[in-house]
Amino acid sequence: MIRAQVLVCGGTGCTSSGSSKIQAAFQENIKAFGLENEVKLVQTGCFGLCALGPVVIVYPDGTFYSRVTPEDVKEIVEEHLLKGRVVERLVYADTGAEEIVEKASVSLNDTAFYKSQKRIVLRNCGVIDPDNIEEYIAMDGYQALGKVLTEMTPEEVIKVVSDSGLRGRGGGGFPTGRKWALTAPNKADQKYVVCNADEGDPGAFMDRSILEGDPHALIEAMIICGYAIGATKGYVYVRAEYPIAVNRLQHAIDQAKEYGLLGKNIFNSGFDFDLEIRLGAGAFVCGEETALMTSIEGNRGEPRPRPPYPAVKGLYGKPTVENNVETFANIPQIILNGVEWFTSMGTERSKGTKVFALGGKIEHTGLVEIPMGTTLREIIYDIGGGIPNGKKFKAAQTGGPSGGCIPASLIDTEVDYDNLVSIGCMMGSGGLIVMDEDTCMVDMAKFFLEFTVDESCGKCTPCRVGTKRLLELLNKITDGNGTLEDIDRLEELCNYIKANSLCGLGQTAPNPVLATLNFFRDEYIAHVVDKKCPAGVCKNLLSFNIDQDKCIGCGKCAKNCPVDAIHKTDYVAPGHKLPSYEIDTAKCIKCGACMAGCKFGAISKI
Amino acid sequence: MKSLAELQAIKNKMKDKVVLREGSGDVRVVVGMATCGIAAGARPVLNAFVEEVNASGLNQKVTVSQTGCVGLCQYEPIVEIYEAGKEKVTYVKMTPEKAKTVVEKHLKNGEIVSEFTPANV
User: What fold is seen in the domain A543-605?
Assistant: First the structure.
């Protein structure tokens, strides 16, 4: 009889920090101590606290072990599983080792990281084994589908989704119910349900984690959508760069077929639905809905003009609903728990929760799900644990290459679709990159422009040429050759690209520039007028300098310099015995190696 | 899958297997499993509790877990039962048979089995 379960995170974050070795070590040690019949090992999806991975949880105590190494496993098995003694040194500090000893049981939900979260979409991630359909069923899985197919009409399903106020989680925020309602009445011999799992924003990994941690939630939702709009065929378009997600989803589809949840006559209702995976080759533009459909059709992933909208002429020219993974993952919960439950969370016009991938200069890198309307301050400081190394928060970037940024002055903004749009930002798919005082905003805008220049499909001129010219202007500014007129030109070009591009990629590509111009114009001006980079990032605007009176002449900087740009002078500062050093700025490549090595604080960056 | 009943059957069958992960139940049975406890036979006691609790359908309400040395080594195996709002009950010198009795009387019917408490052993 199983008395304890060991859950090892098998998400991409923990897998890359070695969780598969840990699983193997557990298997071996559980066997070695003769506990096979008492302790069960379960591989789960992402727990969210990726910064502390690999993560292991032992139930029934709920002990949360973080940064576990394969060498630690024997100790956990021998001490905890055999002798009942928690291995305190590995317990995540925030759960408090003392508390564990006292209560012998600490719920993860008590920790600061989880306390303010509301996990609906991620409810099963880190709880169930994604490769086992029966565990999903144990957690009320496929109950919503059963209810829909046996008790509800398609119109009723659409009404529930519409009334819930659910909006597209992929970034645009289009009301999901309206999308379904627009597609349902269109007559055709075949309609399609498409899931956009082509998560391309740098830093966003929520869709990946859902696919890896709870793939059946997506499958269930897509069947429900099919029933609501009268489609019998679905495609999940997922990028090939997500091998774990692809494997688990395929496994889940196979299992669903085996259990008769996909295929003919599901729940004896006469409704048939079939689902297939289509792999994307990783082009960012394929996350745009029309380009995605073109790619599924087997063509080069290029967007097509709208209208006609997919609701009328989508995949293979047939009426199609396309939603993102996170949007779909909300559906079964809305059906089961009702409209009132869902609308009780969130703000006036943004209901429910949103998953954010926290990245950048933040303590708890990872995945969090919070009710809409939570302030940025709560996300960054209460849940995210604040900025490391005592640095100051400068801005948060949302929406990836299509988004903008929220400056520190607006940290109390309640995050929802409309608030973000009103400050010139966007929700995006949920990547939230935190930047501290050492980030140069011009450089940040340049980073995203480099990305969009690479990823522009080239079909329309404003995007193909416009983004390239934007990047050239940004390079000119960060190289120290910019003028005030360049800033105006930058702005004008941004607006032109936005207004004239064919698809979402081009229409949003200038956003990082516009947002930084809006909130951090002074930094642009510092670059072009003072020829200085206030954050000390843009190399061409930097120079390193040795304070002759602080330099004790040890020569360490000269040894560290890779280009031999530092030499001894004839000057001996008062109180020092050796002559000081100086930097030949013509030779200096501004690598910063001298400054990093100086113990006396004699070298500064200006 | 042809009916809701079929789905419910799988759910019921699996619920017992995942219930452990929902955190502690209202009642916690903790078995002392330090070296002294194991030497005195705590493992069969622990397993007996797990089996009996599951067999009697109490696993939604009762969590069986283990702890280290309780400090009364000569009375091992020691089992403590915690229930919210009630005083902790300690049973000493436990055996699998005694475990059965405790599940039957204490966990099912709420009667403390006083002959196993330290005062009477």
Answer: Alpha-Beta Plaits (3.30.70)
